[in-house]
Specification:
Blueprint: H1 2-30, E1 51-53, E2 58-61, H2 68-76, E3 85-89, H3 92-98, E4 103-105, E5 108-114, E6 128-132, H4 136-148, H5 156-161, E7 168-175, E8 181-189, H6 190-194, E9 200-208, H7 217-231, E10 236-242, H8 246-254, E11 258-260, E12 263-267, H9 273-276, H10 288-300, E13 303-308, E14 313-318, E15 321-326, E16 329-330, H11 335-342, H12 344-353, E17 361-363, H13 368-378, E18 381-385, E19 395-398, H14 401-411, E20 418-422, E21 427-434, E22 437-445, E23 448-450, H15 457-471, H16 482-490, E24 504-506, E25 518-521, H17 528-541, E26 545-552, E27 560-566, H18 579-587, H19 593-599
Parallel strand pairs: 2-3, 9-10
Antiparallel strand pairs: 1-2, 3-12, 4-12, 5-10, 5-11, 6-7, 7-8, 8-9, 13-14, 14-15, 15-16, 17-20, 18-19, 18-20, 21-22, 21-26, 22-25, 23-24, 26-27
Helix pairs in contact: 2-3, 10-18
């Protein structure tokens, strides 16, 4: 009996010793004192003055630099169009004193995940899977996601060169059905970089495509990287996150990350400018379409005066010239051109005379016979208000007279005149034309949800709508209205129906971003005849900035019909195409590439 008690006592003492050791180790890692090496390894074995090239800039490991003067000097060697980060700084106030005019304290928090206590999730990815980056196509897709999130892009060959690196790990999330890259994350193994005495690792560049329709992509990327480093025997995984990124912080804390007093310092440059200077007044109140242009102008040194943030109005001034804008609508667009675009029937007549192919159209009348004859001739029709934007009041694919009359009634709430058009089967293509040249082409896809076998279609729509709103700054939501109910009913379901797992349902026929649609870049694939049609339409209307909407069988085929022209096209969500850059080029040609290159040049 005494022997059993002795064994139990020793086991209990062993567990207590382990717990105490863990607490001491965590306490040591979270204090402001320099880090300590484990008992079996000397910190002297670490490499010195280590900086790791990551494509977008260098990651400087502050603990490997002997003095703050040396670290400040290394930061001063930052190249043009780069974003170097000095990480693991315990005394940032001292480092900043070395070069107060050049360096600033990054307004971010450092979070740490203890891999010894991390527990993988039993939940598996749905609709996508996580794998290594393996091709140049992957690299290009990752860059497109970086650009959509306002991050510094990386040369594709850099990804390719480091695809088998033991120090840098790239994971991507791929859609099961389409093969699209949905998200990416980068991991750094500190032990392989500089013989890290603490045996740590870190997470960088977590980004998910704003158009992604699957939930949990970011979480699964973080978990996959954590499990990768845990399998390698790393002690922890750190990351840096902006202090006001509440959504990301909530995710990290849910996964078990905790804050540690470790800081990052960066160099003052045009890329980092918004982190160390105050943005223009009311900048945060601007919508994403206005903010994108203001960001580009601010980066070039163009003066910005936000005149009405809620309406998206701002004034840009450069070199003695001042232009008032509302998002992408500027004083360079005439009132005549704007009025042509405002009335869809007028737009149709103007572009038809210029030689574009347009669908047959009639004005909606209170005559069932006339409506019925038009429907019988074309089989399926589109109803839309003659004036309006953002897809409001538009109903697509109507097949019965009752559906037509109901859609006409709804459209008349937005415009006195309502149009009925022949329905062209295919994809919705938006072509952004600036200065009468194509800048971006994108297919706009209607909102859809994928069943999980548990949630109703209504619940799936609400969940998808929240994700779209979060990804677009509140600009994209899926309305639950008569049009949504009609589309769902046409498929044999109701909003209360539970959708079988894996089944995909299109819940609206219109593909506008504001009604939950998603945008997919096809600029490199678009057929020359479609480009010619868009530029011809812009010249016919005589408008310098315009979004031309065509229905096409495929972006790579010449068949199309003209739908409408938008005098204030949204320039956001067209990554990686330089829509904001070309817009500011139009307004202020002398602020363009050469001026930007001079601004980003390294110090003499």
């Amino acid at each position: 009996m005494a022997k059993k008690e002795d064994v139990a006592l020793r086991a209990s003492r062993g567990r207590s010793d382990k717990a105490l050791g863990y607490r001491l180790k965590r306490l040591r890692s979270e204090t402001m004192k320099p880090t300590s090496a484990p008992a079996d390894q000397s910190a002297e074995q670490q490499d010195r003055s280590v900086s790791l090239e990551l494509g977008w800039g260098r990651l400087l490991f502050a603990q490997t630099f002997e003095t703050n003067e040396e670290l400040a000097g290394a930061l001063g060697d930052e190249g043009p169009a780069r974003r170097d980060i000095a990480f693991y700084i315990r005394d940032p106030h001292v480092l900043l004193s070395m070069a107060p005019q050049e360096l600033f304290l990054d307004p971010s928090h450092t979070y740490r995940l203890d891999l010894a206590t991390y527990r993988p999730s039993r939940r598996q990815p749905r609709g996508f899977f996580i794998r290594r980056l393996t091709s140049e196509a992957d690299a290009n897709a990752v860059n497109a996601i970086y650009q959509s999130r306002g991050m510094v892009t990386v040369r594709p060959d850099f990804f390719w060169t480091n695809r088998d690196s033991r120090a840098i790990t790239y994971f991507v999330a791929e859609d099961d059905q389409t093969g699209d890259i949905l998200g990416t994350v980068t991991g750094v193994d500190h032990r392989r970089v500089f013989q890290d005495a603490e045996n740590g690792s870190s997470l960088w560049c977590l980004a998910v495509d704003p158009q992604c329709r699957h939930a949990g992509v970011g979480e699964m990327l973080v978990r996959r990287l954590a499990e990768h480093f845990a399998a390698r025997g790393a002690s922890f995984m750190d990351l840096s996150v902006m202090h006001d990124n509440d959504q990301a912080i909530a995710l990290y804390e849910k996964l078990g990350f905790h804050r540690v007093p470790v800081f990052a310092v960066k160099r003052k440059n045009p890329i980092n400018e918004k982190l160390f200077t105050h943005p223009p007044a009311d900048f945060d109140l601007l919508n994403p379409y206005a903010r994108l242009i203001v960001d580009e102008a601010h980066r070039r040194g163009v003066a910005v005066d936000v005149t009405d943030a809620e309406g998206g109005f701002f004034r840009l001034s450069f070199g003695g010239r001042s232009i008032h804008c509302r998002e992408s609508l500027s004083e360079l667009t005439s009132a005549v051109a704007m009025s042509i675009c405002d009335d869809k029937a007028v737009t149709r007549r103007v572009v038809e005379r210029a030689g574009l192919i347009v669908p047959e159209q009639m004005e909606a009348v209170d005559d069932d016979e006339a409506l019925g004859a038009f429907l019988k001739k074309h089989g399926r029709v589109v109803v839309k208000p003659a004036r309006g934007e953002q897809g409001k009041g538009v109903a697509v694919g109507l097949e019965t007279l009752d559906e037509m009359k109901s859609a006409i009634r709804i459209a008349r709430e937005l415009s006195d005149r309502v149009l009925v058009e022949a329905c062209f089967e295919g994809e919705d293509l938006r072509l952004v034309v600036i200065d009468y040249r194509l800048v971006a082409a994108a297919v706009r896809r209607a909102p859809r949800v994928v069943g999980d076998g548990h949630k109703t279609i209504g619940e799936l729509i609400e969940k998808q709508s929240r994700r779209r709103a979060a990804a677009t700054g509140g600009e994209s939501r899926i309305p639950i209205d008569d049009e949504t109910r009609r589309c769902v009913a046409a498929l044999g379901y109701e909003l209360s129906s539970v959708l079988p797992e894996g089944e995909e349902v299109v819940v609206r026929k219109t593909a506008n971003l504001h009604t939950g649609g998603s945008i997919h870049d096809v600029t490199e694939k678009v057929h020359p005849d479609l480009v010619k049609a868009a530029c011809t339409a812009a010249r016919a209307i005589d408008i310098p900035v315009v979004g031309i909407d065509l229905m096409v069988r495929s972006p790579g085929q010449p068949d199309y019909v003209f739908i409408e022209a938008n005098e204030r096209p949204g320039l956001a969500n067209h990554e990686p195409q330089p829509t904001a850059e070309r817009f500011v080029d139009l307004l202020f040609p002398r602020s363009g590439v050469k001026s930007a290159e001079r601004a980003l040049a390294p110090r003499a």
